[in-house]
Amino acid sequence: MTQDVKIGVIGGSGLYDLDGLEVEGEVFPDTPWGKPSDSLVIGRYAGKKLAFLPRHGRGHFLAPHQVPVRANIAALKMLGVEE
């Protein structure tokens, strides 16, 4: 599933999208630890390709202890994220 995305941004409380992100698509992959918090939005920001993931899900539906941390990181790695 590698998308050649090298930069990943994980949004915290209140950050559910990035203003100025030119969206190219979304993916919601299965990982060995289940699904990530939400779909990963892939796009360009300031000319750089990146993946954005809202840590608590859009709308903040996951409490901190419910965030699937391993699945989130695995999903980003599946896209090729290194930073």
Report on this structure.
By secondary structure, the chain is α+β, with helices and mostly antiparallel strands. It has one domain (7-79). It is built from 1 helix and 4 strands, in the order E-E-E-E-H. The chain has one helix at residues 69-79, and strands at residues 7-11, 22-27, 40-45, 48-54. It has a 4-stranded mixed beta sheet with strand order 1-4-3-2, covered by helices on one side. The mean pLDDT is 91.
- Distance between the ends: 18 Å
**Gross geometry:** globular
Spans of 5+ residues with little confidence (pLDDT < 50)?
Answer: none
The main pleated sheet reads as: 4 strands, mixed
Class of secondary structure makeup? alpha+beta
List the helices and strands in order.
Answer: EEEEH
Major sheet strand order: 1-4-3-2
Count of domain modules: 1
Cα-atom Rg, whole angstroms? 12 Å
Helix content percent band: 10-25%
Number of strands: 4
Tags for this entry?
83 residues, alpha+beta, four-stranded mixed beta sheet, 13% helix
List the SSEs and their pairings.
Blueprint lengths: L6 E5 L10 E6 L12 E6 L2 E7 L14 H11 L4
Parallel strand pairs: 1-4
Antiparallel strand pairs: 2-3, 3-4
Task: Provide a quick synopsis of the model.
With 83 residues, the chain is of the alpha+beta class.
